[in-house]
Request: fold
Amino acid sequence: MTNQNLISARKKLGLGPSAMAQKMGISYSTYYNWEAGIRAIPPIAARCVELLIESEEKL
Reply:
């Protein structure tokens, strides 16, 4: 997952960066680093985002 994919997923969920970090159970600074492309998004975090989107689509 790229940082652009992460941004798109967050927007699809209708969340701001802080709310997305909270929903994922991580700090805002960690989330910011991923979204800004400073750090790579770990596979487990990418899967978490995928699951959030899947659960939102089921509602």
